[in-house]
């Protein structure tokens, strides 16, 4: 049992352990049979001592207990396992919180099931109000073609309905929604977007990438209270799954202001490395402000930028060097011109910001690497840590370029396991060899911070840990793993959720491992993910999440 003497808030004051003379007592001492630290110098210890929200000792139990004072709390976890606080290196926090309020379409196995869930929601929604949902994936249905709106429009005629695909790069709208948005056969495809049309040229209901905005702009935005509620719900959900940090991809000014307001009032139980949305107006505002780190007691970082170069593989929006194997004539979409990426990269280097670019297809990845290389040739910077978010499909000639340019591939283990059934169809045998190529990249010397891209995938970080070491989904498919030579070791998978996200966010001196001087961010698990059989990893329960020595989640 976890000792109930531990208070909800653990406070104190103190120093690091290697100081001269007598040391102030610890506020908290944690003992357990297994504490995996992600610190190569001491990978496995039995105790931590914490003072003022930071670790002051990591080692054997006697050493930690030597720092016990009259007011020190002792948490004896026995046979439980402790790991560093997990960090999702690519997620969408406010979107995830908002998605908890919408119709959940994940796992639906037919269009009929999607419609049934929307009809159920319509029964409790006032006529004329929008119904939104997320998570449908036609690749899981018997008919893998994009759906058309007619059946949905007949079933739900009195509500505008807007349903985002699982990858967030396509959406299905019913007739009422298209009418509300004034979308007709005369509506043109925007640059970087595609309206799927019927034989007569009328919108068939699905909108890909930039075309999604033709309908979504008509959806009423969340008011301030709803936005705050969504953020807090997202934070609580993250804590529940053992996350103490997130790299939050593509956040607008209004949401950043809400993050800061919550953090300054002490209601933000997460370390958020914010990637600022890469539109010109937002960037100019934050360039004037300048890069900032560890704001509001180490809750908010504002020193990185997010741009999307292309769409997603599942909706055939990922930009490829050659046609899709299952759709001749389609090579995907560029969401911004490569020249724009290059210009932003130069400004980022000049202003001291990190640039992180979404690129999924092999053409998009090559164009981003080219843009980075060109910008770095004009504005050299030794420690830029530019990133490519996803890096899912790479031409073999581009794999060594990440290490050569100092670019970090930020990838998501759960994307591999969920995309595997359709990736071969989209790419064919030759190109798929460079898809989700973790081992090929690691062998060049780069790191791979891991994430989920929630709400695209479930928030549970152990799904990506499991995928990273098995190359299998939750059902053990395929037997032996999907291109198993690309798997990570367990130690690499642990680093990919702890130490490597810290490095990828310039936070390695503050977090990422349970080392003296760093934040006391850790997670208590009911079993040891570093040794349990692979097929039991996803059964692991998060018992407690601790942020800076403060319990922010405890399983009841």
Protein model, in words:
The N terminus is likely disordered. This protein folds into 3 domains: 130 residues, Roll (Urease, subunit C, domain 1), CATH 2.30.40.10; 124 residues, Diaminopimelate Epimerase, Chain A, domain 1 (Roll); 285 residues, Metal-dependent hydrolases (TIM Barrel, Alpha-Beta Barrel). The chain starts with 27 loop residues before the first strand and ends with a strand. The chain is of the alpha/beta class and 556 residues long.
CATH class of the largest domain: Alpha Beta
Radius of gyration: 24 Å
- Biggest sheet architecture: 8 strands, mixed
Number of helices: 18
General form? globular
Cα(first) to Cα(last) distance is: 12 Å
> CATH H level of the largest domain: which superfamily?
Metal-dependent hydrolases
Examine the secondary-structure arrangement and name the CATH architecture of the largest domain: Alpha-Beta Barrel
Fraction in helix = 25-40%
Work out the number of β strands.
22
> Class by helix and strand content?
alpha/beta
Overall pLDDT score: 94
Low-pLDDT ranges: 1-21
Quaternary state reads single chain
How many structural domains does the protein architecture include? 3
Portion in strands:
15-25%
